[in-house]
Amino acid sequence: MSTADTPKRSMRTPLGRVRSLGAAHSGTSDFWRQRITAVAMTLLMIPVLVIIMMLLGRNQAGAAQILSSLPVALILLLFIIASAWHMKIGMQVVIEDYVHNEKLKLISIMLNNFFSIAVALASTYAILKLSSGV
Amino acid sequence: MQVYRWTLTMALSIVHRATGIALYVGTLLLVWWLVAAASGPAAYANVQAFTGSIIGRLIVFGYTWALMHHMLSGIRHFVWDLGYGFKANEREALTWGALIGGIALTVLIWIIAYATGGGR
After folding, report:
1. What is the ipTM of this complex?
2. Could you tell me which chain B residue has the CA closest to the CA of A56?
3. For an engineered disulfide with B98, which of A73, A77, A125, B73 has Cβ 3.0 to 4.6 Å away?
4. Which of residues 18-37 of A touch B (CB under 8 A)?
């Protein structure tokens, strides 16, 4: 395909045009972050399961005591941040694949962001509140 | 689209998405549980009444399986991302591994949970 007869010639190389862009207009950053968060959650899975086992069958006072300990709070915070980020990216991929109406797609992506951020913030606030003991 | 022969890897690709969507919705349960723990005894008792009920246990059991399956299926995708496991027998083995491993881990987790007092 020749570009010699096109009126406006760009000085940008083909690589320069696609770098950091692509169909999602945001390049490969989501692809990479989806994998970082996936690996993080996989590494954290055993500690998280141990924490949940420790909490099973305890009442609120017992659960609050365990959740307020520093290592438990840190592990859960890391896991929740990775989860919220991962699920936001994953759901966006699903939306982009199946929702073809442009307006509906943008609204869905926006709601997806709201939901994921709300999940992350509500959980984080709860853990910090338990840690501060108020 | 009937020209395609339905394969295990195709079916599991859909299951990976479906479990991902289920886990997405299921985070509401995680949030409810953490917020209740931070709110007080009455709120926490409500969560325990729900998770202790038959329907609640079924949902948490389903959530456990979705999580374990999605994790193993995701590791399978990670192996493919790294450029390995594309031979016919390899991708079949990885897919069966995720399917059987997900069920096995779910059962194992629930056995440990009951053995360590989760059934209280």
Report:
1. 0.91
2. B118
3. B73
4. 35
